[in-house]
Amino acid sequence: MAEALEIQEIHDKFLQEASFNLSNLRTQVQLTYWSEQHFITRSLLKLLPFGEILSDIHFYSYVNYSLDKLISKANQTLLYWRLLGITQYDGTPVTQLSLFYNETFLWHYSTPSYWEEIYLQIQSGHRVRFLSQFLLLQTKIEVEFNEI
Predict the structure, then answer these.
(1) What are 98's strand-pairing partners?
(2) Neighbours of 26 (CB within 10 A)
(3) C-alpha torsion angle, residues 73, 17, 50, 105 (rounded to 10)
(4) Domain residue extents for the chain
(5) Which of 73, 79, 118 is nearest to 95 (CA)?
């Protein structure tokens, strides 16, 4: 009985902490999303460099050092959905999320802010990337980068 109570306390504490750490995708006008659920953890959203122009150094730093954190935060989002019992229209649990960076924002807001850096990187023969898509499934996580 005490063990079941302890698990319930952990469950309740996790949900309480997670609810204070949520981002509503409906308010993220620079992102387009496809999911039955429009709330994800703020910490997951912060780990996704949408709108940032990534030079070679920033890109490889992200790939080498941030992916483990990204997996952990993505799993927290999946766990949050599962514990709340959030379901799709057919009653099955929500198990996927696709986020896309709105290219209008890329070309009209992000790119002008980074214009000088982009110009110098390209002129030096370096690649310039940006995060274009994030996919979260029960079985995999994908991040897709495109180049300017």
Answers:
(1) 34, 135
(2) 10
(3) 150
(4) 2-147
(5) 79
Nearest to 86 by CA among 97, 94, 78: 94
Decide: pTM greater than 0.90: no
Interior/surface letters 2-15, b for 16+ CB within 10 angstroms, e for the rest = eeeeeeeeeeeeee
pLDDT in tens, 52-69: 888 888 999 999 999 899
Average pLDDT rounded to a whole number, residues 97-124 = 85
Three-state SS letters, the chain: CHHHHHHHHHHHHHHHHHHCCEEEHHHCCCEEEECCCCEEEHHHHHCCCCCCCECHHHHHHHHHHCHHHHHHHHHHHHHHHHHHCCECCCCCECCCEEEEECHHHHHHHHHHHCHHHHHHHHHCCCCCEEEEEEEECCCCEEEEEEEC
Residues 6+ apart with CB under 8 A from 15: 80, 83, 84
Taking the alpha carbons at both ends of the chain, their separation in whole angstroms is 59
* Count of positions (residues) in the chain: 148
